[in-house]
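Fold this sequence, please.
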Amino acid sequence: MRSIVCFLSALALIIGCANPPAKPGAASTESLPDPATYTKVQWIDSVKDFGTINMGDSIQVSFTCKNIGEKPLFLTQVKPSCGCTVANYSKEAILPEQTGFVTGTFNSNRSHPGEVRKTIFVTTNTQDGINHTLTFTGKIVQPVN
C-alpha cells in the first residue's frame, strides 16, 4: 500500500513539473496573431438587446465589423461564454473597407427565465487590441397558455 502511495505521489510530481501552470491572463503564443499583419477593426454594433422571448425559443443575434485598416482582417477565434449560445462568423479574410459578421444563436432552453446577458469573445489581428467582447441582452418569459 505504501509503495502505491509513493508511486502516485511521484507520478503527480512529475506531471505537475512537466506542465507548469500558465500565469493568469497569459495567452499562448501559438494563438496570437503576427504583429506585422495587424489591422484595425470597427465594430458597428457590439451590444444588442434582443427584447423578450418565450422560454423554449431560440433567437439569432448578429454583429457587424468593418476592416478600417490596410491589411486583411481575420477573426481568428470566436467563443461564446456559455453552452446556450452557438457562434458563427466570417472565416475568410475581411479585406480593407469590407465588413464581416459574428452571429450568436441563443437557445433559451439552456438558460432560465428572467433577464439574461450573454457574451461572445472574439480574437482578431488588430493593433488596438486583439480581444473583443460582443454582448447581447434580453428577457426570457414563461409562455402564456
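The radius of gyration is 21 Å. The beta strands are 41-43, 47-54, 58-67, 75-80, 85-89, 99-107, 114-124, 131-141.
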